[in-house]
Fold:
Amino acid sequence: MGRTTTTATLAKIDPDNGLAEDEGPGTLKYLTASVRHRFSFGMAQAVFSKADARDDDTGIPAPEAPRTIFDLLTTLDRLPWGLHGRGEYEYVGHKLLDVGNPEHPEQFEAIPVGETRIAIVRPFMDGRLQLGVDGMIARGYTGQTTETFAPGWEIGGPPPVCAPGVDGIPNNFACGTVERAVGIRMVSWVGESISWRFGSSM
Structure:
């Protein structure tokens, strides 16, 4: 169990991600539990972590703060035909992206993410050569945050053009904006691997 306090700061992560408002001061409370058990043929491990971050002034959950994470890992070293297996499932719960403001009253939440990873390896030549197959079954989006777009702008369309500002320079981000939750869809994949260890076997 742990507790961490943060100072008031600008929540901007980088030019394209994160909020542009001041956040905090805040308090982050978290609880993490881990259990591991070794068998004669492998190992199993489970990790659970729960965090809650809130603004000390308002009590509102901090946007883009840590949330529930669950991870289950299993290794099997005595499969038939000399195979070694590894499986892992990770779940990352939803998080608050934006509590809203007068211009954008809508509240945005991230979609939970789930990943299932599987790997099978077959060693040869006393372990110097290893052939493997691995893959991942993914659900959800990575890099979830909020972005603002010019009204009427559509994906694939030309960049929005706004009227010149007070200094006569066009400002394409100051002609009214629409906020949206965005993210990159995670994809499932499968691959092969070849590993060769140089030198004498150990």
Summary: The chain has no helices and 14 strands. The chain has a mean pLDDT of 81.
